[in-house]
Write a sequence for this structure.
């Protein structure tokens, strides 16, 4: 799939999102539910801000010493019989993974949820070699059945679908004949998926956190699917972004708690799985062969830059769950597998400005995201940094905007010019404050864009200055 | 106490004089001597938030010079004060200006913050008979960290019947240039805000940031709804009928 989803233009995607009444209702409900639960579980912690500070410190320390911890992690995996591959690009990662699968003569692959495998388009790469890849996270499985509909949320990927739509998909693709009752739907999915779990020769997982000191991989789920996907198949491949690492189990303890609370408002999810190395003599389950693919895919270019804090992300989606823009346009409008505020920051870093130049502007800079982030990524500030780079480095700013900003700066740093402007403004504003009879706005450029949907207050003509001057002379005392 | 008023460009140019007048009169009633540096313009936020930081610096330097003499700078806008607080970062690579920027940032206050935190007053003796609700603007609460001051002051205004705004933490969709760059999204956001305001049955929406009030008020006007918009300075300056 890759980072980018779809080929439509930004505002076409936004229109589609805004007009999708069902999706919007689902997003509002999900935001209310998830944010409410998060607030409750963070209050239980008592001193949430201290936990955020500590979590930020852990993530910053890890990123500042990433080379050390990655090496430590890799050595520990290798010492215990695992294989580690550092993939610089999506292609390198996919080549390695398809080769492992080929060598095992495997055809059936069971997967647990992983954003990085979406990012590198791993499923497509495996399918091209003739493999049958099955997503075992319920949300992801629904999307996969529905002709590979892309995820619209990083934790709740099928957020945009209701139970009727899911019933329809099950019926169409798997001859499901029961009702849209969620219990019946889930039961059917379990029956279907059980066969895939049992027949899979290879299990592929993502990685919530990799523990450097022990070479372990940890996975956080509510469905237990990651545990099955790592115990039944003979071969396990774990794919992880290179920043997804913690020094020791002590830090893992803290960050897993922050992740579960921030993502779904649970103290812990139903399953927290920790996996170390391959099956040993006497073990009843676990893989006989274990591979870890550590994916760079643009991340090392972010390290050491002003955007480094974006790599602190633990993929909890708390920023998405409070974002007022996401609330109205939904995940697909972002045109990226990473939607919402973190998506608007990360997507241009991973995939360039060319296809994503609107994303940094798709925010009112209300800072709800920054406030919600459990690892204190200053998301709204990073969006402003993107805007700065777009202005100063890319040349992707229209002539009119450039001139307007230069004009603004001249006027707002020169009292005489400012006075001229302010003297002219009131009568101009008066002339365009209300809409045309057809309801459309008046004026041109940004003024028209404003007045298309809103009136302007009718100023009484730079009168504060006159009033103040007058009373200083004793006129109004 | 000597206070220099930073009026903000919206109160200066777009809004009628009453917001500035009320700010001056409230401060004077509380014993302040108010000075209005005539050379003041805008805080530079439109350029800053659009990524035009060179242009924003030009404006910031002008503002730093204009208010260098001031003991306190007080402004009827949380958002514009939060921009003044951004100046030291803006000049991070220029120690001389960073120092001057810090001096301005340290002595700048939003109006209600100044009244409660510096003047230590929570009852300004205002009276207004009205059903009201209050919009908590994002920059004032999240960037400036001022949450309680307006609520404390409003609680002591005689005659106010206050209903809390549902989803009050949610942005109204203004966002400066966002309101014209992303019109379809901004429209949905302000529509939801107006719906919540209607749910309170308030006759008056109070706010402490003219950007938000211009957006919400402009949408209310366009939709022909009977809700009046007032800046908190105007409320605090009300003396009953």
């Amino acid at each position: 799939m890759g980072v980018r989803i779809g080929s439509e233009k930004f505002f076409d995607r936004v229109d589609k999102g805004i007009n999708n009444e069902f999706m919007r209702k689902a997003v509002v409900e999900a935001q209310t539910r998830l944010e409410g639960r998060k607030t409750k579980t963070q209050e239980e912690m008592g001193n949430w801000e201290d936990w955020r500070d500590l979590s930020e410190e852990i993530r910053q320390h890890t990123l500042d010493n990433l080379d050390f911890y990655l090496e430590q992690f890799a050595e520990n995996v290798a010492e215990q019989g695992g294989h580690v591959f550092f993939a610089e690009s999506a292609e390198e990662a996919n080549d390695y993974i398809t080769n492992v699968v080929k060598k095992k003569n495997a055809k059936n692959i069971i997967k647990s949820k992983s954003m990085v495998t979406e990012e590198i388009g791993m499923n497509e790469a495996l399918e091209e070699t003739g493999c049958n890849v099955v997503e075992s996270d319920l949300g992801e499985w629904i999307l996969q059945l529905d002709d590979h509909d892309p995820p619209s949320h990083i934790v709740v990927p099928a957020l945009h679908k209701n139970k009727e739509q899911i019933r329809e998909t099950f019926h169409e693709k798997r001859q499901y004949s029961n009702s849209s009752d969620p219990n019946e739907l889930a039961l059917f999915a379990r029956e279907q998926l059980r066969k895939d779990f049992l027949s899979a020769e290879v299990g592929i997982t993502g990685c919530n956190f990799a523990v450097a000191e022990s070479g372990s991989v940890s996975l956080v789920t509510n469905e237990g699917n990651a545990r099955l996907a790592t115990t039944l198949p003979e071969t396990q491949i774990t794919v992880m972004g290179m920043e997804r690492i913690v020094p020791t189990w002590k830090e893992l303890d803290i960050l897993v708690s922050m992740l579960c609370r921030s993502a779904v408002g649970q103290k812990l999810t139903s399953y927290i799985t920790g996996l170390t190395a391959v099956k040993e003599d006497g073990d009843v389950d676990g893989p006989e062969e274990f591979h870890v693919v550590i994916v760079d895919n643009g991340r090392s270019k972010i390290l050491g830059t002003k955007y480094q804090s974006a790599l602190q992300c633990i993929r909890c989606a708390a920023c998405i769950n409070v974002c007022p823009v996401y609330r109205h346009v939904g995940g697909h409008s972002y045109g990226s597998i990473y939607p919402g505020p973190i998506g608007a920051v990360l997507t241009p870093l991973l995939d360039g400005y060319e296809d994503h130049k609107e994303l940094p502007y798709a925010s009112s800079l209300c800072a709800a995201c920054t406030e919600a982030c459990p690892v204190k990524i200053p998301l709204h500030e990073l969006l402003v940094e993107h805007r700065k780079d777009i202005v100063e480095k890319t040349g992707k700013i229209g002539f009119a905007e450039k001139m307007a900003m230069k004009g603004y700066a001249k006027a707002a740093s020169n009292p005489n010019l400012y006075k001229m402007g302010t003297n002219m403004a009131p009568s101009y504003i008066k002339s365009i404050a209300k809409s045309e009879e057809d309801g459309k706005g008046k004026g041109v450029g940004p003024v028209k864009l404003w007045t298309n949907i809103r009136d302007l207050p009718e100023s009484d003509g730079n009168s504060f200055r006159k009033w103040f001057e007058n009373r200083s002379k004793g006129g109004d005392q | 106490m000597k206070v220099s008023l930073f009026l903000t460009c919206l109160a200066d140019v777009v809004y009628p004089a009453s917001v500035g007048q009320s700010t001056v009169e409230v401060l004077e009633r509380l014993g302040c001597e108010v000075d209005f540096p005539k050379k003041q313009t805008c805080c530079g936020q439109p350029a800053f938030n659009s990524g035009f930081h060179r242009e924003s610096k030009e404006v910031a330097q002008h503002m730093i010079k204009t208010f260098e003499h001031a003991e306190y700078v007080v402004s009827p806008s949380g958002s514009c004060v939060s921009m003044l607080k951004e100046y030291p970062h803006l000049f991070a690579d220029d120690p001389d200006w960073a120092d001057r920027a810090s001096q301005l940032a340290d002595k700048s206050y939003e109006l209600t913050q100044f009244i409660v935190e510096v003047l230590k007053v929570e009852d300004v003796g205002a009276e207004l008979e009205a059903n009201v609700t209050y919009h908590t603007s994002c920059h004032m609460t999240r960037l400036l960290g001022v949450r309680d001051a307006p609520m404390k002051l409003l609680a002591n205004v005689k005659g106010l019947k206050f209903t809390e705004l549902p989803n009050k933490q949610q942005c109204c969709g203004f966002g400066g240039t966002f309101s014209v760059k992303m019109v379809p999204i901004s429209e949905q956001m302000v529509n939801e805000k107006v719906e919540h305001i209607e749910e309170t049955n308030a006759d008056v929406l109070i706010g402490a940031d003219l950007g938000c009030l211009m957006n919400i008020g402009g949408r209310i006007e366009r939709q022909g709804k009977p809700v009046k918009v007032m800046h908190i300075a105007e409320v605090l300056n009300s003396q009953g009928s």
